[in-house]
Batch of 2 targets.
Target 1
Amino acid sequence: MATDQDKPCEHETFAAVVEVNRIAPEGGSLTGLMADVTVWCSDCNEKFRFTGCEPGLSFAAPTVSIDGTQLHAPLRPASADPDFGLGLPSFSVHLEG
């Protein structure tokens, strides 16, 4: 679909990439999983920001990249214990304005 550069994009068509990252020490067993999600308008290529999550990285709760355009969501297999991945290091970024 061709876009008219003089009009704002209606953002009607989207694309997304989901990368699932395995966290394991070299030669060790799986200790965590993280899904990184990025979404953009496939007509104008504008990235979208995820709202409601703090910037940083945590295996206990979803977070976002510093610019908010990538969601970091911790995962665990359905058969895993509820504390799967919770012992891994995390960090948060506090923005002051």
Target 2
Amino acid sequence: MSEVMLSLEKVHYDLGGVHGLKEKSKTYIRLLETLQRLPSNIYEFAIKNILFVDASSKTIPLNQLKALKKKYVIILEKNISNFGIAHEIAHAKLNHKAFWESSLEQEDEADKLAESWGFKHE
């Protein structure tokens, strides 16, 4: 039985905003589309646990992490692909260390998990 795909409007509502990212930007739309395609349990995990931040933001809003009870931050570069977003969500789901502490093994694990969700490595 296949899951019902959420509308982009529903994903936007559930997400509740992205620090520093304009809602009409290509990156924001790509984020919504990526979240929309995730398995429902991963979607719920991402909405509940991840604060998405635009890379051009000057600061990461740590007060929002606490207020929104978010455990992870994903910094979205301007041209990040759907696979790239899914890959970063996979790192969070796998509870990997910060990017400066990651290993090739962790990168492979995140790639495989993102691929298992239907995203193709570009």
